[in-house]
Amino acid sequence: MKTALAIIGLSAALTLPAAAQAETLRMAFSSAPxxxxxxxxxxxPTASLKEHVFEALVAADDSPLLAESWQWTSxxxxxxxxxxxxxxxxxxxxxxxxxxxxxxxxxHLIDGKRNLLTSSMGPITDVVAVDxxxxxxxxxxxYPLWIQKMKFLSILPxxxxxxxxxxxxYDDQGDCGGITYPTRxxxxxxxAAIGTGPYKFVRFDKSGEADLVKNADYWGGAPEWDxxxxxxxxxxGARLAGLLAGDFDLIENPTTEDLPGLxxxxxxxxxxxxSWRSIFLVLDVNAEGAKGVRAEDGSAxxxxxxxxxxxxxxxxxxxxxxxxxxxxxxxxxxxxxxxRAGAPELAELPHDPAKAKELLAEAGYPDGFxxxxxxxxxxxxNGARVAQAVTQYLSRIGIKVNLKTEPWSVFAGxxxxxxLGVFMYGWGHPQGPAQMISFAFASRDKELGLGSSNxxxxxxxxxxxxxxxxAVETDETQANAYLGEAMRIVVDELPGIPLxxxxxxxxxxxxxxxxxxxxxxxxxxxxxxx
Length: 530
What we know:
By secondary structure, the protein is an alpha+beta fold. It has 15 helices and 18 strands. Strand 13, helix 11 (383-395) and strand 14 form a beta-alpha-beta unit. The protein is globular, with a radius of gyration of 24 Å.
């Protein structure tokens, strides 16, 4: 890190490449995309790459994309109107047949493995091409979340596969009358990587390299850049050195320690955007006790709401945002950001160590108790430092904290096996402001898709009722009202403790404008010349 800062300090005389290379945008990702096949994998790097080439019916911000509009014709039937001016990269026109084909492809298991939306499409019973530019999704029960889920269904050309003659008949196995689909290898070789997006596929390498070229006939207007080069550099110092050397025009995720140097460099700058990712603590509130949580009397401290509130009051969120992130983090007072469309705006969570000690004494723990506190060491920006700060705050009110930072691969395995009583975690909200709490705090309901990640063992009848009502409500205003009710309950009871929302940061040439995205994705479509 000191080396990177030193390079910035010495780079005042550095001349960055200018007009000669201005038609090519060179970007460095911090993590490698897994494939150009848009269906098997999620993850921000993979999504960032594939969205240059492929598009969905709905955009990341829930606005229409390939869909022109949609409406519920009944509580279990959603009708979508497609844009009529869209062509794939091979020149074929977008039709409803392509949407049916793409839904079939999503449900088709590859080597027995599910795709990105295979489970999420469980409630879908039929996908029907009503006419060339109208498609209808039929569901076995109300499933309003499908509107947000549609943003992950990349639309592929049916002409690129071996499909039967005549209308396609959807089924939940992806057979759909005997379609033969392109393989992942064919996508990565380029033959099947045909979408409707602003850039066309040229090359992909699993090391994290990809080359793209402008789609001059893009329905949304010709994109800014003739060519886009994507490379992956995992080390932050090496990414920054590449930017300074002129190898890249834009890089992801410089460290917060690098920001003062970037400000001082007239040739470079950075763009920071509050993201949809919440960083929070998860607390196992099981009345029978939590793993790694020990009280002298053998009780279960985290089962007491006063203890959880005391832990929340002990933490100085503003100090974390200011001191550890240089202001490039936003204090979290609820589990989804208030700036996520549809989210409620709740009151500020107080920082009051004296009151926290009083609450612990009230709950029967005047001398505190002991916890093992787990945090991934390599997952979140400044994550290990944040965990250390939280440890210090909790220690100041009498809780003995054994901090255990571990690589993500180790941490994630323990989390899956329910071995962690207290841990730090992050959750994005691409599917709306209810996404995290619907998975993390709701009682498990497979039919409604609730509670699949309830590691806190939390259960509240009022919260569950609100979430179940939200899960089937197709009226957006009423659904947001149910969400607000659920959020108020869970923030009051604190089966988890909100900390902050990450900011996504891009360092780049000073002559570029970056309109950063809240979903943390890096896209050439957000970069323009000043």
